[in-house]
Amino acid sequence: MTASPGNPLFSLPSGGAFGRLSAACLLALSLAGCRPHDFPQYPPNYREYAYVTNGGSGTVSVFDVVNVRLDRELPVGQDPVAVTASATRNEVYVVNKGAPNGQGSVSVINAENNSVAATIPVRKLPLAIALDPDGALAYVANSGANNISVVDLKQRREVAVIGAGEEPVALRLSPDGKTLVVANRSGNSVTLIQTATRQLRAVFEGCPNANDVVILPDSSKAFAACAGGHQVMAIALARQGAHPGDALQPATDRLEALLDVGRGPVQLALKPDGGELFSLNSLSNSISEVVTGTDDVGGAYLMGADPVRGIVSADNSLLYVGNLHSQEVTVYAIDDGKREGSIHVGDGPAALAFSAAGHLLFVVDAHSDDVAVVRTSSRSLFTMLPAGREPNAIAVKAFKVQ
Questions:
Q1: Model pLDDT for residues 150-169, shown as the tens digit of each residue
Q2: How far apart are CA 350 and CA 360, in angstroms?
Q3: In terms of pLDDT, which residue wins out, 89 or 18?
Q4: In degrees, to the nearest 5, what angle opens at C-alpha 224 toward C-alphas 218 and 227?
Q5: Phi, psi (5° rounding) for residue 18?
Q6: DSSP E strands: which ranges in 196-348?
Q7: Of all helices (H) and strands (E), which one includes residue 72?
Q8: What are the C-alpha distances in Å from 104 to residues 81, 152, 172, 193, 314?
Q9: Which residue, 8, 141, 249, 378, has fewest beta-carbon neighbours within 10 Å?
Q10: What pLDDT is stored for residue 100 in this prediction?
Q11: What dotted CATH number matches 17-27+45-400?
């Protein structure tokens, strides 16, 4: 659990809000400009945690966002690889890949006391999870079983299995909850599943090593990253009942376009307003900008060595990019269409998440086994916190205790 060379590991003491900030400023003397108004003022019953899965140690590191410190490290299942937080209950769900020839599982973390409340068996080699809008069901992509587990989160059990393509590695549920979009890596395809009937609705082939998917906020269109080539697949989703935008949607799902981007697109970062997405091209060390309404591809912009993860700020203005073969997060100004510099973090930034208020960016460093905490107001490193071995994913959960 070490930081990259030259980056000390900081742990902030508990205490009053101003005392915590003063301690942080003293610990990070080189990070000038630490001011109390850079941080939100939280009510006494407010809680916020960042959960980081550590594949090499079979644990989840829990970080107290209010106090900016490591809270605890929780044992979960073998090889945790994905994590997501419920929007409707104070729970966090961890996907445990398990042994190569064994069964995977989902660990349920009670966020109020940060303990493991349940472990739910799923199928072989699960890699990704998506929750339905009301938080009642989870969909888990089982890459080794070529199917999707439907998990009832209240009953804590698998209630159905839906066939997918070969090696499903990523999935996304449309905001209206009606369509599940699945990327099948070995199948070189994208599968659409009707959630109401749990039936296969459509399959679109020709996406080599399909690796990631995003869906527009109005549920009208999906995009898939074809990591084995240099394209992004755009799929127009069929109308699923009356809602705004129906007139613009086809009666049946259809392939809209294959968009040329850089080599090795491994992840898609969508703006919160859905107007643009960014393809992270790992083999070209670049990003490609796509206008989602017209499928126009803008320019390609050099980022860093092996960009693998991107996240857009809530105001749609900045894209932060983690470059796996470096110690840098690069910053791209969307409106200006240019790179605006970089932030030095740990070794191998592989996953990113904002705090609920957006004042902090947490960067998971896969190679140095730590988490860099970046102040978004100044785009500067605030502190480094230790994680477990081989950290790989992150989710943030904020809530108020009763």
A1: 999 999 999 999 999 999 99
A2: 17
A3: 89
A4: 160
A5: -70, -35
A6: 199-205, 210-215, 221-226, 231-236, 254-260, 265-270, 276-281, 286-291, 296-302, 307-312, 318-323, 328-333, 338-344
A7: strand 69-75
A8: 11, 16, 19, 22, 34
A9: 8
A10: 86
A11: 2.130.10.10
